[in-house]
Specification:
By secondary structure, the protein is α+β, with helices and mostly antiparallel strands. It has eight helices and 17 strands. The strands form two sheets. Strands 8, 9, 10, 11, 12, 13, 14, 15 and 16 form a nine-stranded mixed beta sheet that branches. It starts with 5 loop residues before the first strand and ends with a strand.
Length: 306
């Protein structure tokens, strides 16, 4: 990977190699970090960050769940995101704000400083070249998501992604592009790091936030865009077998964007490629960045607000 030249850490832009933390930092041992994934896009009006403030509000919400007091304001984190894009001369990029418990104590409940960094780098399609057009083959994982009142799925916390690693690595080992997890109830949850949508008779069906999933900002965006376009959206509990019965299926997330799924567990979904509703959702989503979809909700925030 080609690393960028500059990164923001604890209030300062510095060379990438100088952004270090101690090996005895609390987060390294206990997974005590919260983070966001944000994309910026080139648009007819210049580089724009997609839902920057919404993402960083969720960063603060995740930190609040874990009793982490981020020592910067929302405006300061937003400004850091813009600054690191500008310093690295990046227009289309992926942003990673992250806050973690640093060095200061060795117990689970130790009081430590909260360190913060913001990185930005170029990233194409998360699940591989061509997947936005061709789709992926996915499988249902043998690993389930955590049960309610164990680990809060509503927080985007580093430790939560140990679950996603198990799901994703199992899928790759078995030759699939991604894995889909069930909740502790045996009903559908989400992908390793993506939300899922099933299409039945032209309507979108997606699992609820009670199904041990992160309430994704891309998920929320697609629900909003679909309803704006007159496409019905149903949030409901979904049994596993409905994956095999749906007309279309796709994953979404900041990294995955809108990725069609052409088969599950070796069973073809629909025509085995992106169907008409999936393609329409891709058009509506990516249209925000090429100007063909009007930004009715103020989701595009300029890299250079001046």
């Amino acid at each position: 990977m080609q690393y960028p030249e500059w990164i923001w850490q604890n209030g300062t832009i510095k060379p990438w190699a100088e952004a270090t933390t101690h090996v005895m930092s609390h987060a390294l041992h206990y997974g005590s970090s919260v983070f966001e994934g944000i994309r910026s896009y080139e648009t007819p009006d210049g580089p724009m960050i997609f839902r920057l403030s919404d993402h960083n509000r969720r960063l603060f919400a995740s930190a609040r769940i874990y009793d982490m007091a981020i020592p910067y304001s929302l405006d300061e984190i937003n400004a850091a995101c813009r600054a690191v894009l500008q310093k690295n001369a990046l227009g289309k990029a992926y942003l990673r704000p992250v806050a973690w418990r640093g060095l200061g104590g060795f117990g689970l409940s130790a009081e430590t400083p909260i360190d913060v960094a913001v990185a930005a780098w170029q990233m194409g399609a998360y699940l591989g070249d061509g997947v936005l057009e061709q789709g992926i083959d996915a499988c249902v994982s043998s690993w389930q998501r955590f049960a309610p009142n164990t680990i809060p799925a509503g927080a985007k916390a580093g430790g939560n992604y140990l679950s996603g690693q198990l799901i994703a690595r199992e899928a790759r080992r078995l030759g699939f592009g991604e894995g889909i997890a069930l909740a502790s109830t045996g009903l559908l949850s989400e992908g390793a790091g993506e939300n899922i949508f099933l299409v039945f008779d032209g309507a979108l069906h997606t699992t609820p936030v009670s199904a041990a999933l992160l309430n994704g900002i891309t998920r929320n965006s697609l629900i909003t865009l679909a309803r704006d376009a007159g496409i019905e959206v149903v949030e409901r509990d979904i049994p596993r077998e409905y994956l095999y019965l749906c007309d279309e299926l796709f994953m979404c997330g900041t990294a995955a964007e809108v990725t069609p799924i052409r088969s599950i567990d070796g069973r073809q979904i629909g025509a085995g490629k992106a169907g008409p509703v999936t393609r329409r959702m891709q058009e509506l989503f990516f249209g925000l960045f090429d100007g063909s979809t009007k930004d009715r909700h103020g989701w595009l925030e300029p890299v250079d607000p001046a």
